[in-house]
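hey can u check if this looks right to u? its 126 residues, i copy pasted from the old doc so theres a chance i mangled smth
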Amino acid sequence: MSKIKERFQALDLMERAKKCPFKPFFKAPLLQFSGVLIHQLRLRKVESLDDMRKIHFDISGKRIRFGLCEFALITGLNFGKYPDEAKLKTMSGIRRLVKKYMNDSNIVRSGELVAAFLNCGDTEDA
């Protein structure tokens, strides 16, 4: 997030970014990733067959759910109603940025995405 903030500041886009739906990410303090916590949760993951948008964990004998609603509460993002399959296909069908910056690749690694973002000079694309 710090690299994104730095890049947006360099392109003078911070005010615009704070007006977008992702503004909680720009206002949030620096978060520390805990690999140990994630590992412990993964060890307690329970198979969930009813809804693929939720993850269930068994913690102290109780089944705990983490889904889109919880993610929205934590991040402060407004998710509204989850889009249906047809809407998702039309949304994901736009590949202009992938064609322009990633050579229309079907697989984009995080390092390639970071490099493309940091080297992007077009403020609209950033």
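The chain has eight helices and three strands.
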